[in-house]
């Protein structure tokens, strides 16, 4: 089989398309022919050597994907050839709260990932794809989709009538817009592009702010909420944007820390204390969360936002396009 393998931490120079022996499923495992895979920001961080010491090289990259079951190992009961499935980001996180062991069994970092023609996964780590989704759409669900679902619906306990602040126009943010609207919430978004803000409004965003023109966007967000502040912030910047996020959120509100796109900066911890802000780290989600999200998407006929699809041979170009932050929604690679 062909697979994209990372051999070092020198960016795209470390990425190779190689031929590997076809894997075979052991007892309790499922062999999946990958049909589409999707890029995430963590893939860039891993390639740059900024993810942490637990990345094991050489590594088949990628953590998002969708495929078709082609064979099952002895004892497998949940799946049969022909089933359309998506693998969970953390293959051992089935239900309940996150535990330390879940972080040591993650696709595309501690385990080989999805950017290959074939993949072997534990049978309990797979989820059925909603019938209305294409391979390319389904490939976006396991990481970005379930992260947004966990932040807002599961851990955030979003209620109708509440207000959500999203950042940028990547996969997590566009999923969050759709899930927030599905839950009956109002969405305010920030972006550096007026064109992208217009596209977000077409998805249902109520108000948009260009943070390059409005650097004190935390204050502006409060003004949009009559001085109250938003109920939820999906924090993708990290330290560089937390100061404004703590200004934008209401007293007793929730900031879901998802990304570190702007890792440098300082913020006032006293405001977190005095406003009783709950800051929660969100790293993907469990199989149970992914299943509930898939059911909700099926009932609402909800579709992810796919920006561009690259061929399997074009993975380096997909990485370059993604790194340039020109995308709106998800960047996907078609395997076959």
Order of helices and strands: EEEHEEEEEHHEHEHEHEHEHEHEHE
> Which secondary-structure class do the elements indicate?
alpha/beta
The helix tally amounts to 10
Q: First CA to last CA: what distance?
A: 12 Å
Give your account of this protein's structure.
The chain is α/β, with parallel strands linked by helices and 336 residues long. It has two domains: 2-145 and 284-334, Quinone Oxidoreductase, Chain A, domain 1 (Alpha-Beta Complex); 156-281, 3-Layer(aba) Sandwich (Rossmann fold). 28% of the residues lie in helices and 26% in strands. The protein is built from ten helices and 16 strands. Strands 3, 5, 6, 7, 8, 15 and 16 form a seven-stranded mixed sheet that branches. The protein has a six-stranded parallel sheet with strand order 11-10-9-12-13-14, sandwiched between helices. Strand 12 (230-235), helix 7 (239-248) and strand 13 (249-257) form a beta-alpha-beta unit. The termini are close together. The mean pLDDT is 95.
